[in-house]
Design a protein that fits this description.
The complex is a heterodimer of chains A (1064) and B (381). By secondary structure, chain A is of the alpha+beta class. Helices cover 28% and strands 30% of the residues of chain A. Chain B is an all-alpha fold and 381 residues long. Helix content of chain B is 70%, strand content 2%. In chain B, 43% of the residues are buried. Classes of the chains: A alpha+beta (1064), B mainly alpha (381). The interface between A and B is large, with 57 and 40 residues. Chain B: This is FGF1 intracellular binding protein.
Chain lengths: 1064, 381
C-alpha cells in the first residue's frame, strides 16, 4: 500500500554568489524521491529566493518511504552551460512514518555541499499521508519506533523487553568502483552519502520487520555502524533491543500537576500480586519493591520506576525498613469481587502501623482506583515485617530456571541496554568479551552477506558461552565494534553477563500481559552485586565475601561491568573516569601473517589493559567499574588499546586493599629505599584519592560480618577470548595464579615504567569530575547548563626509535593533555562534571594517532553536592521529612516521573516543582518549547539520555546522518585543524537543523560513531567522513517560567521576523 | 611527537572574552599566549603552556570563522553553524566594531580609500596599535560607509539596523561616516587637542541641523550630505560685519547684556569686532568644498585661538555666544534662520580652548551645549 509524500519548497537564504558578473544567483530546486524528480521555477537574481512552490506529491510504497531519503538539490540556472549545483539536503522521512513522532518536517536546512560545506539554507515543508497496510507479507515496517537511547525512553513504559535484534547489509563502496576514476570527487561523495543513506534506511526497515515478528513495537539501544572495508565493500550493520513500549498516557508536563488522576496513580509502587495471600507464604520482601504493571489498558500507565522510598510510605516507626505495600493488579477473571478486595486492603492498611499522613496519602489513591475498577483491583497486603530477603538456593534455582526458559528460545539473549527498569537486573556476573581477527575479502554477492553474518554469529556465540560460564543467561550492555586496517579486521563484542528477571521477558502476546506471573522481589540495593554463579564451581578463581549491605549473599571483591550504574545501587563517595592506555608495536606484514601477528598480540594487550585498569582502580580506592569499554585499534605497525570506565565504590563490595610493591633484589639497599619510597607514594595517592572522591565507607564491626575484612587476593572478572580465522578459542585466565594480586613486582624497567605511569595520571582540577557513564555517581543535583563537545587530536609520532615505552608514553600524554585541555576550556563551568566521556582511537596512517572525544559537561550545584556525602539512611530520612512538609501542599508532585528516572535529589525537585503552580496559570498549555519559534531556536545536544532540569515530553524519531566533506584547498581552509573544525561545526549545525525542523529542541543519546579523517598535505587535500546519531526530542524545562522571562527580550525580535518568513 | 591537528567544537560555541580581545587587538597566537601567561592564568588554573597554546589556537580559529559573519552582523543572528546565545552574539558584534580612539582620530575625515589603507602602517607605528587591528577598524569604517552611503532615512538608524550596534556605537559610526563623507580636515596640529568625542558631538549636531534631512524631514532623508542651500544662505550673514552700523548695534546689544556677567568683559569688548568677523567669515565661505573641509581649522584659528589667548573661561564663551546670536535676533530685518546654528557649533570648540582636559569637558559640554543648541534652534526656527 502506498503512502503519499508531499514536499513544498518555501524559500532560500544566504545563498552563495554563483554568478560573478552580477554577484547574484539564479537558483532553482530539484526535489527527488526514488526515481521521481520535480523542479521549482528559477528564481532569478537573488541570494534569498522565495520559491513558494506548489506541493510536490510523490506516491510511493511504504517500503521506499523507509529506505529512500528525500533528496533536495539547489542549483544555479545557467542558460548556456550546465547548471551548477549549489548543494544538497537529504531528509530522512522516517520520523513521519510513526504516529507518535513528528507530523511534519518544516524548517530551515543548511544546504550542504561535500566540497564547499554549508552554502546557505533552504526552507522546506514535508508531510506524509500513510495508508494502513494489512498485508501480512509486507516488506515494510512502518510504525516501529527506533531509539538510540540505551535505556527505556523517558516517556515510555516497557511492557515487554523482547531481546536482541541485528541485521547487516553490504554493498560495494562507490569510492572503489571503476566509475570513480572518471567522475568528480563531488559526484563520488554524493553517491556514497546517498548509498549509505539508502542502506541505513533498508537496514532499519529490516530490523523493524524482525521486531514486528517478535511482536514488539520499538527498538531501544539501536546502534548502527559502518565498516568501510575499502576494496572489499561497505558494510552497514545494526544491533538493538526489541521492546514493546507503551506511551505513558499523561505527559505530565502539559497538565497542571495537582489534579491528574493518572499522576496520582504513579505515586504508588504498584505490584502485581496474582494471589493476595502470597505475602504469608511467598518470598519475603526485600528492601525495595518496584515492579511493573502489565495491564493492557493505557488508562493507568505510569512511570515505571516508582519506589517506596520515594513515596514515603515507609513508616518510620517500623522496626524494619519494609513498609506496607499496595499492590495493584490488572483485572483477571478469577478476581471479580472488587469490593471485597478493597475492603481487605483497607483493613490491611489500617492494621499496619501507618502514621496519619500515610493514610491521607493512600486514601485518595484508593478512591481513584475504584473508578478504574472495571479493569483494576486493588489489593493491599501488609507484607514484610519479616527479615530481609532470604533468597535461598532453591529460590535462586527456580528463578534461573524461569529465566532460562524465557531466554533459551532466543538465539542470543543479548540486550543493548545499559540502564534498566528497576527489578530487571537481578545479578551481574562480569564483563564478557570476544574478539576475532578476520581477513577481508571482496563480498561477491551483496544480497547474501553470509560471511559477515557468520563472523558475527560466531562471536556472539562465544559471548553467550562466556556468559553461561559465569552462570548467567543473558548479556546486557552489549555492543559490537570493528577496527579495520587494510585487509585485516578485528571484530569485537563485549557485554556484561547478567541474570535477569524473567517477568520482562515473556513473549508479549495479549494473553502474556494478562497472564498472572509469579512475583519475585529480588531487586535490592545490593542484589545486582551478588554472584550469579555457583560458589563452589566458580568459572575463575575469585575471592568472595558476604555482601556488605545485606550480609546474606556472596559478592566478589571487584566488579567490572559495561552497563550504567543501577539507580538504586548504593555508592559511597563519587566516581571517576579510569582509563587504561596501551600501545604495542607490530611488524608490518601481509594478509595471513599479519592476522596471525595481531591475534598473537591481542591476549597480551587485553591482559595489560586489564592489569592497568585494576591497578588504577585500586589506586583510586574504588572497587567497581561501570561502563567499561575496551577498544583495540589496529594500524599498519601497531596496536592500540584504550579502556575507559567509571570507577565507583560500591557499598556492597568489600573495601579494596592497597597496592604493594615488591622488589626482586631485596639485598640492594638503595633499591630497597627506592621501593619503599614508591610504596609511600602509592599509599599517599590512595589516601589522597579517597579524600578527593569522598570515599569514606562506614566502619563495619567485624562481628556483624562474621568474617574478617577480606584479604584482597584475586581480581579477574574478565573472561575473554580471541579467535582468529581458524576458530581457535583461547580462554585466558587473568588471575595472577595464587599469589596476592595486589603485589606489583618490580623486576625490570618495564615494570618500573608501569608503576610510574600509574602515578602520573593527574586528577582533574578541583571542581571537575569526569565519568563515562550517563550520570556521575555521587552527584545528583545537576543544574541545567550543559555543553556537549567533540574534540579531535591527531599526533604524528617521530618515526625514529619507536619503542613500546615511547609509544605508551606518547599515547598516555596525548590522552592526558587532551583531558587537561578540556578541563581548561570548560573552566568557566566549574563546578561541573564531564559525563559520558567517550574516547575513540584510530590510526589513520603509519605514524598518526587520532583520538576523538565526545562528552557533555554539566554543571551542578556545589552546595547541595556536599549533602550527598551523608549516608543513604540519613538521606532518606531527610527526604522523608521534606516529604512530610510538602505533603499537604503538593501531595502529588513528590514522585513525578522525572524524579525517578533522573538522578535528582528529591529535596531539590520538590522545590523546583513548588514553583510550578505559580507558573501554571501562564504556561499551562505551553506545548511548544519556549524557544521553538525563534529564528535559530536553541537545540541542545547531549550524549546522555536525559536533559538535566528538564522533562522530555516527546520523542520525535531517530537522527542518523552521514556526511562526507572533502577539500582540495586545505591550506586555504586553515589547514587540517581549520578544515575539521569547520566540518564538525557544520555537522552539528545540520543535526540541529533537522531536529528543529522536526519540532524538537534537543538531541539526546547523541553519538559520533565515526570520524574518519584522511589528509594529504602535499596535494593540499583532505577528506573526512562523519556518522552521527541520536534521538530528537522535545523537552520542557522544569523551571519554564524563569527561562522564558530571561530569554524574552532577545528571542522576541528574532521570532517575529522568522515567523513572517516561515508563514510566507 | 608533534600535534598535527587539535580541535574542540562545542554545541554551544565557546567564546573566551579575553582571547577575543587579544584577537581583535591583532596579536598573533604566540603573542597572545605570552600575554595570557603573563596574566597569571596558568597559576590560577594549573594548566600548562601547551594547553594554553592549544586553547588560544582553537579560539583564534573560531574567531576566524566567525569573522566572515561579523562582516554582516544580521547573518550572525540567522546562521546555523555556530550556536551562540544572543547576549554573546551582541558582545561579539559590539566588540568587533569597537575602535580605538587613537586610531579613529588619525583617519577621521579622511577618504576611506585604498590610499588611506596603505598609510595604515604609519598609523600603526604612530599609535602603537597593531596593523591587524588597524586594518580591521579601517575595514569596519569602510564597510559601514559603503552600506549606508546611498541609504535613505536616519543615518544612526540605518547603521543600527544593518550592523546591530548599540546606540552609542552607532552614533559614533554615524559621525565617522559623516566626517569621511564630507572629508573634514581634523589632522592639523592645531586640532590635535580635540578628541574624537568632540568631533562626534559636532557631527551629531551638524547631522541634525545642517543636512538635507534636517531641513525637511518629509523629503528623502539624506543624512550624509550638507544642505547646499543652507550653506548658500549663510553667505548673507556677511552683512553683520560688512555693515558698520549693524556691527556696532550688534556689539552694543551684546555688551549691554553681558556687562558684569563676564569675567573677561573688557577683552570681549575690545575683540568683539574681530571675533564677529572671524565667525561670519567662516560661515560665509562654506559654499566652497575646500572651505567646508577646513571648517574646523578655520573655527579654531578665527575664534577659538583669540579667545584662548585672552584666557576666556568656558562659561564666558558660552554666555558670549548665546548673547551674540540672541542679539542678532533683535536686529532689524535680519534673516536669522541660519546664524544660530553655526554658532551653536562654534560653541563646541571652546571646551578645548580653556586648556582643560578635553574629556572632562565632554560631558559637561555635551549636556549644556546641547541644551543651548536646542534653544537656539527653537528661537531661529
Amino acid at each position: 500500500m502506498p503512502g503519499k509524500l508531499k514536499v513544498k519548497i518555501v524559500a532560500g537564504r544566504h545563498l552563495p554568489v554563483m554568478d560573478r558578473a552580477s554577484d547574484l544567483t539564479d537558483a532553482f530546486v530539484e526535489v527527488k524521491f526514488g526515481n521521481t524528480t520535480f523542479k521549482t521555477d528559477v528564481y532569478l537574481k537573488s541570494l534569498n529566493p522565495q520559491w513558494n512552490s506548489e506541493w510536490f506529491k510523490f506516491e510511493v510504497d511504504d517500503e521506499d518511504l523507509q529506505d529512500e531519503p528525500l533528496q533536495i538539490t539547489v542549483l544555479d540556472h545557467d542558460t548556456y552551460s550546465a547548471n551548477d549545483a549549489i548543494g544538497k539536503v537529504y531528509i530522512d522521512i522516517d520520523p513521519l512514518l510513526y504516529s507518535e513522532a513528528a507530523t511534519v518536517i518544516s524548517g530551515w536546512f543548511p544546504i550542504y555541499d561535500t566540497i564547499h560545506g554549508i552554502r546557505g539554507e533552504i526552507n522546506v515543508v514535508v508531510k506524509v499521508d500513510l495508508f494502513n497496510d494489512l498485508n501480512r507479507f509486507r516488506q515494510s515496517s512502518c510504525g516501529v519506533k527506533f531509539f538510540c537511547t540505551t535505556s527505556i525512553p523517558k516517556c515510555y513504559r516497557a511492557v515487554i523487553i523482547h531481546g536482541f535484534v541485528e541485521e547487516l547489509v553490504v554493498n560495494e563502496d562507490p569510492e572503489y568502483q571503476w566509475i570513480d576514476r572518471i567522475r568528480t570527487p563531488r559526484a563520488s561523495n554524493e553517491a556514497r552519502q546517498r548509498l549509505i543513506s539508502l542502506m541505513s534506511g533498508e537496514l532499519q526497515r529490516k530490523i523493524g520487520l524482525k521486531v514486528l515478528e517478535m511482536r514488539g513495537n520499538a527498538v531501544v539501544g539501536y546502534l548502527q555502524c559502518f565498516d568501510l572495508e575499502g576494496e572489499s565493500g561497505l558494510v552497514v550493520r545494526a544491533i538493538g533491543t526489541a521492546c514493546t513500549l507503551d506511551k505513558l498516557s499523561s505527559p505530565a508536563a502539559f497538565l497542571p500537576a495537582c489534579n491528574s488522576p493518572s499522576k496520582e496513580m504513579k505515586e504508588i509502587p504498584f505490584n502485581e500480586d496474582p494471589n493476595p495471600n502470597t505475602h504469608s507464604s511467598g518470598p519475603s520482601t526485600p528492601l525495595k519493591n518496584q515492579t511493573y504493571s502489565f495491564s493492557p489498558s493505557k488508562s493507568y500507565s505510569r512511570q515505571s520506576s516508582s519506589s517506596d522510598t520515594d513515596l514515603s510510605l515507609t513508616p518510620k516507626t517500623a522496626p524494619y525498613p519494609q513498609g506496607p505495600r499496595i499492590y495493584l493488579c490488572p483485572s483477571s477473571p478469577s478476581l471479580s469481587c472488587g469490593s471485597l478486595h478493597l475492603k481487605k486492603s483497607c483493613l490491611l492498611l489500617s492494621e499496619s502501623s501507618l502514621t496519619p499522613h500515610h493514610s491521607s496519602l493512600v486514601s485518595p489513591v484508593l478512591r481513584k482506583s475504584v473508578s478504574f475498577s472495571e479493569e483494576l483491583f486493588l489489593a493491599a497486603s501488609g507484607m514484610g515485617s519479616g527479615s530481609a530477603g532470604k533468597e535461598g538456593g532453591p529460590f535462586k534455582a527456580l528463578l534461573r530456571q524461569q529465566t532460562q526458559s524465557a531466554l533459551e528460545q532466543r538465539e542470543f539473549p543479548f540486550f543493548t541496554l545499559t540502564a534498566f527498569p528497576p527489578g530487571f537486573l537481578v545479578h551481574v556476573g562480569g564483563v564478557v568479551s570476544a574478539r576475532s581477527v578476520k581477513l577481508l575479502d571482496r563480498i561477491h554477492n551483496p544480497d547474501e552477506p553470509e560471511t559477515r553474518d557468520a563472523w558475527w554469529a560466531e562471536i556472539r556465540q562465544e559471548i553467550k558461552s562466556h556468559a553461561k560460564a559465569l552462570g548467567c543467561h543473558a548479556v546486557v550492555g552489549y555492543s559490537e565494534s570493528t577496527s579495520i586496517c587494510e585487509e585485516v579486521c578485528i571484530l569485537s563484542a563485549s557485554g556484561t553477563a547478567a541474570v535477569l528477571n524473567p517477568r520482562f521477558l515473556q513473549d508479549g502476546t495479549v494473553e502474556g500481559c494478562l497472564e498472572q506471573r509469579l512475583e519475585e522481589n529480588l531487586s535490592t540495593r545490593c542484589g545486582f552485586c551478588h554472584i550469579p554463579y555457583d560458589e563452589l564451581n566458580m568459572p575463575f578463581p575469585a575471592h568472595l565475601t558476604y555482601c556488605y549491605n545485606c550480609r546474606k549473599q556472596k559478592v566478589p571483591d571487584v566488579l567490572f561491568t559495561t552497563i550504567d550504574l543501577p539507580t538504586d545501587a548504593t555508592v559511597i563517595g563519587k566516581g571517576c573516569l579510569i582509563q587504561a592506555r596501551l600501545c604495542r608495536l607490530k611488524k608490518k606484514a601481509q594478509a595471513e601473517a599479519n592476522a596471525t601477528a595481531i591475534s598473537n598480540l591481542l591476549p597480551f594487550m587485553e591482559y595489560e589493559v586489564h592489569t592497568q585498569l585494576m591497578n588504577k582502580l585500586k589506586l583510586k580506592g574504588m572497587n567497581a567499574l561501570f561502563g567499561l569499554r575496551i577498544q583495540i585499534t589496529v594500524g599498519e605497525n601497531m596496536l592500540m588499546g584504550l579502556a575507559s570506565a567509571t570507577g565507583v565504590y560500591l557499598a556492597a563490595l568489600p573495601t579494596p586493599g592497597g597496592i604493594q610493591i615488591a622488589g626482586k633484589t631485596p639485598n640492594d639497599g638503595s633499591y630497597e629505599q627506592h621501593i619503599s619510597h614508591m610504596q609511600k607514594k602509592i599509599n599517599d595517592t590512595i589516601a589522597k584519592n579517597k579524600e578527593l572522591y569522598e570515599i569514606n565507607p562506614p566502619e563495619i564491626s567485624e562481628e556483624i560480618i562474621g568474617s574478617p575484612i577480606p584479604e584482597p587476593r584475586q581480581r579477574s572478572r574478565l573472561l575473554r577470548s580471541q579467535s582468529e580465522s581458524s576458530d581457535e578459542v583461547t580462554e585466558l585466565d587473568l588471575s595472577h595464579g595464587k599469589k596476592d594480586a595486589f603485589v606489583l613486582e618490580i623486576d625490570d624497567t618495564d615494570a618500573m615504567e608501569d608503576v610510574h605511569s600509574l602515578l602520573t595520571d593527574v586528577p582533574p582540577p578541583s571542581g571537575f569530575y569526569s565519568c563515562n557513564t550517563e550520570i556521575m555517581p555521587g552527584i545528583n543535583n545537576w543544574t541545567s547548563e550543559i555543553q556537549m563537545f567533540t574534540s579531535v587530536r591527531v599526533i604524528r609520532l617521530s618515526s625514529l626509535n619507536l619503542t613500546n615505552q615511547a609509544l605508551n608514553k606518547n599515547f598516555n600524554d596525548l590522552c592526558e593533555n587532551l583531558l587537561k585541555s578540556l578541563y581548561f576550556k570548560l573552566r568557566s563551568m566549574i563546578p561541573c562534571c564531564l559525563c559520558h566521556v567517550n574516547f575513540t582511537v584510530s590510526l589513520p596512517e603509519d605514524e598518526l594517532i587520532q583520538v576523538t572525544v565526545t562528552a557533555v559537561a554539566i554543571t551542578f550545584d556545589k552546595n547541595q553536592a556536599l549533602q550527598t556525602t551523608k549516608t543513604p539512611v540519613e538521606k532518606s530520612l531527610q527526604r522523608a521529612s521534606t516529604d512530610n512538609e510538602e505533603l499537604l501542599q503538593f501531595p502529588l508532585e513528590l514522585c513525578s516521573d522525572s524524579l525517578h528516572s533522573h538522578p535528582f535529589p528529591p529535596v531539590k525537585a520538590v522545590t523546583v516543582e513548588k514553583a510550578s503552580p505559580v507558573g501554571d496559570g501562564n504556561f499551562r498549555n505551553r506545548s511548544a518549547p519556549p524557544c521553538a519559534n525563534s529564528t535559530v531556536g536553541v537545540v541542545k545536544m547531549t550524549p546522555l539520555s536525559f536533559i538535566p532540569g528538564a522533562k522530555i515530553t516527546k520523542y520525535l524519531g531517530i537522527i542518523n546522518m552521514f556526511f562526507i566533506r572533502e577539500t582540495t584547498s586545505l591550506r586555504e581552509e586553515g589547514g587540517v585543524s581549520g578544515f575539521l573544525h569547520a566540518f564538525i561545526a557544520e555537522v552539528f549545525a545540520m543535526v540541529r537543523a533537522h531536529v528543529a525542523a522536526l519540532g524538537g529542541n534537543a538531541v539526546v543519546s547523541y553519538i559520533m560513531k565515526q570520524c574518519v579523517f584522511m589528509e594529504n598535505p602535499n596535494k593540499n587535500q583532505a577528506q573526512c567522513l562523519i556518522n552521527v546519531s541520536g534521538d530528537a526530542v522535545v523537552f520542557v524545562r522544569e523551571s519554564d517560567l524563569e527561562v522564558v522571562s530571561s530569554q524574552q527580550p532577545t528571542t522576541n525580535c528574532q521570532s517575529s521576523c522568522t515567523e513572517g518568513e516561515v508563514t510566507t | 611527537m608533534t600535534s598535527e591537528l587539535d580541535i574542540f567544537v562545542g554545541n554551544t560555541t565557546l567564546i573566551d572574552e579575553d582571547v577575543y580581545r587579544l584577537w581583535l587587538d591583532g596579536y598573533s597566537v604566540t603573542d597572545a599566549v605570552a600575554l595570557r601567561v603573563r596574566s597569571g592564568i596558568l597559576e590560577q588554573t594549573g594548566a600548562t603552556a601547551a594547553v594554553l597554546q592549544s586553547d588560544t589556537m582553537d579560539h583564534y580559529r573560531t574567531f576566524h570563522m566567525l569573522e566572515r559573519l561579523l562582516h554582516a552582523p544580521p547573518k550572525l543572528l540567522h546562521q546555523l553553524i555556530f550556536q551562540i546565545p544572543p547576549s554573546r552574539q551582541a558582545l561579539l558584534i559590539e566588540r568587533y566594531y569597537a575602535f580605538d580612539e587613537a586610531f579613529v582620530r588619525e583617519v577621521l575625515g579622511k577618504k576611506l580609500s585604498k590610499g588611506t589603507k596603505k598609510d595604515l602602517d604609519d598609523i600603526s607605528t604612530k599609535t602603537g596599535i597593531t596593523l591587524k587591528s588597524c586594518r580591521r577598524q579601517f575595514d569596519n569604517f569602510k564597510r559601514v560607509f559603503k552600506v549606508v552611503e546611498e541609504m535613505r532615512g536616519s543615518l544612526v538608524d540605518n547603521i543600527q539596523q544593518h550592523f546591530l550596534l548599540s546606540d552609542r556605537l552607532a552614533r559614533d559610526y554615524a559621525a565617522i561616516v559623516f566626517f569621511a563623507n564630507n572629508r573634514f580636515e581634523t589632522g592639523k596640529k592645531k586640532l590635535q587637542y580635540l578628541s574624537f568625542g568632540d568631533f562626534a558631538f559636532c557631527a551629531e549636531l551638524m547631522i541634525q541641523n545642517w543636512t538635507l534631512g534636517a531641513v525637511d524631514s518629509q523629503m528623502d532623508d539624506m543624512d550624509m550630505d550638507l544642505d547646499k542651500e543652507f550653506l548658500q544662505d549663510l553667505k548673507e550673514l556677511k552683512v553683520l560685519v560688512a555693515d558698520k552700523d549693524l556691527l556696532d548695534l550688534h556689539k552694543s546689544l551684546v555688551c549691554t547684556a553681558l556687562r558684569g556677567k563676564l569675567g573677561v568683559f573688557s577683552e570681549m569688548e575690545a575683540n568683539f569686532k574681530n571675533l564677529s568677523r572671524g565667525l561670519v567669515n567662516v560661515a560665509a565661505k562654506l559654499t566652497h568644498n575646500k572651505d567646508v573641509r577646513d571648517l574646523f581649522v578655520d573655527l579654531v584659528e578665527k575664534f577659538v585661538e583669540p579667545c584662548r589667548s585672552d584666557h576666556w573661561p568656558l562659561s564666558d564663551v558660552r554666555f558670549f555666544l548665546n548673547q551674540y546670536s540672541a542679539s542678532v535676533h533683535s536686529l532689524d530685518g535680519f534673516r536669522l534662520e541660519c546664524g544660530g546654528t553655526i554658532w551653536a557649533h562654534c560653541n563646541l570648540h571652546l571646551p578645548g580652548s580653556s586648556n582643560s582636559p578635553a574629556s572632562a569637558f565632554q560631558v559637561a559640554g555635551t549636556t549644556s551645549v546641547h541644551h543651548h543648541a536646542q534653544q537656539f534652534f527653537l528661537y531661529f526656527q
